[in-house]
Amino acid sequence: YSLNLSFLSVLFSAVDSRSAALYSKEEDEYFTMNSDIDGDTENQVELEEKTRLINQVLELQHTLEDLSARVDAVKEENLKLKSENQVLGQYIENLMSASSVFQTTDTKSKRK
Q1: Angle at CA 18, nearest 5°, toward 35 and 41?
Q2: Residue span of the signal peptide, if any (predicted)?
Q3: What is the pLDDT of residues 46-95, one digit of tens each?
Q4: d(CA 28, CA 44)
Q5: Which among 57, 64, 76, 85 would be 20 to 30 A from 40, CA to CA?
Q6: Which residues, 6+ apart, have CB-to-CB distance to 15 below 8 Å?
Q7: What are the residue boundaries of the structural domains of the chain, listed by start?
């Protein structure tokens, strides 16, 4: 299952931009002072979050593909059943027209 890399790039850019917008100037200064200490940890957290998002996107993509395949199968089954229904309907109609039970005759109405 191919996943468009530019889509992922845009997705991560949007996540990064949104995250960056949430920090105030003071938080940025604090972050700069502690970047040496927390840099590796924060990079690890960011990497884990990106990995989680990629896995979630892939899972959703697989689910969508499965649902699409199921819809196609149901449509095919529906067409098959409609066709069989038409054949059975015609068969019943032919039986009814050939049977004297379902025939309306003038002789019955004349007897009354």
Answers
A1: 30
A2: 1-20
A3: 899 999 999 999 999 999 999 999 999 999 999 999 999 999 999 999 99
A4: 19
A5: 57
A6: 49, 50, 53
A7: 15-98
Q: What is the pLDDT of residues 19-57, one digit of tens each?
A: 544 444 445 555 555 555 556 788 888 899 999 999 999
Count CB atoms within 10 A of the CB of residue 61.
Answer: 13
Residue in the block written with tokens 């920090």: 23
The neighbour count for residue 57, using CB atoms within 10 Å, is: 14
Does this model's pTM top 0.70?
no
